[in-house]
């Protein structure tokens, strides 16, 4: 780390945003950050002309820029964690690459972090400009996070956040292949705040965040950072076993008193489907845990860095 690190580092994961990232960087360079700023761009295997856009940024940007090229697409959270390891700033802001996070709001997050005793300040959108299904999905993920990760009720987890150097040093120690940044944050600190920020409409194109990606994020949060689902599975198994035992006693009593109804094929199949379905769900949940453990034991890489380019090599 440089002997004179900047006050602020901004980390931006890049994927499919060659048409917008230069505008975002240009807006960032106009911010009056006392103590200086650096920008870390992580090219997460973007399929568009991202390499050329990054080269232009490296040659024209008036603030120090580091471009980290990953060997393939590893996912947003893997890319962000890789970028966090390259930062030098006392405070680090993470934001999206599509321009929906106004760069002018970065100072609001930074000021809140500097003025309060906080390790992280989340941006809470005054009015979200996502599609309805995406807003519902984000709400659902936040509700699950409250239950699984012991997230403070009412706290909105967003990718637009400002973190202290202390927190960065803690969460970047994670080496597993399935990082979830907010889960790492909630495991490391309770000094958390949020501030209202603006959220701009998408200027062009459609969102690259699909329903499949949202489900994968939900599974990563649910399975990788908590064993509570396994405990719920145990409770469900015990409850179903108790229900089956009660049913056996009831049927036995009816048989002995000669009051048993004439059960047919339909009721038998219905009961079988209920119990078998429950078993498959529980087995699938256990299998998800075992699969992730197997992948981790085999040391699947969190990310593979192909190349690092700097606009000012002397700052490294």
Condensed summary:
With 316 residues, the chain is of the alpha/beta class. Helix content is 46%, strand content 15%. Strand 1, helix 1 (21-28) and strand 2 (37-43) form a beta-alpha-beta unit.
Task: Describe this structure as you would to a colleague.
The protein starts with 7 loop residues before the first strand and ends in a 6-residue tail after the last strand. The protein has helices at residues 21-28, 50-60, 76-84, 106-115, 132-148, 165-171, 181-188, 211-224, 228-256, 265-297, and strands at residues 8-14, 37-43, 65-70, 91-94, 120-125, 161-164, 192-197, 305-310. The longest helix has 33 residues, at 265-297. The protein has an 8-stranded mixed beta sheet with strand order 7-5-6-4-1-2-3-8, with helices on both faces. The model has no long low-confidence stretch (mean pLDDT 83). It folds into 2 domains: 8-210 and 300-315, Spore Coat Polysaccharide Biosynthesis Protein SpsA, Chain A; 228-297. It is of the alpha/beta class. It is elongated and about 90 Å long. Helix 9 (228-256) runs antiparallel to helix 10 (265-297). Helix 2 links the parallel strand 2 (37-43) and strand 3 (65-70). It is built from 10 helices and 8 strands.
- Order of SSEs: EHEHEHEHEHEHHEHHHE
Shape designation: elongated
Number of helices: 10
Mean pLDDT: 83
First-to-last CA distance: 7 Å
CATH architecture of the largest domain: Alpha-Beta Complex
Structural class call reads alpha/beta
- Main sheet characteristics: 8 strands, mixed
Number of domains: 2
CATH superfamily of the largest domain: Spore Coat Polysaccharide Biosynthesis Protein SpsA, Chain A
Strand content range: 5-15%
Q: Indicate the radius of gyration in whole angstroms.
A: 25 Å
Q: Widest sheet: strand order? A: 7-5-6-4-1-2-3-8
Low-confidence stretches: none
Question: How many E-type strands?
Answer: 8
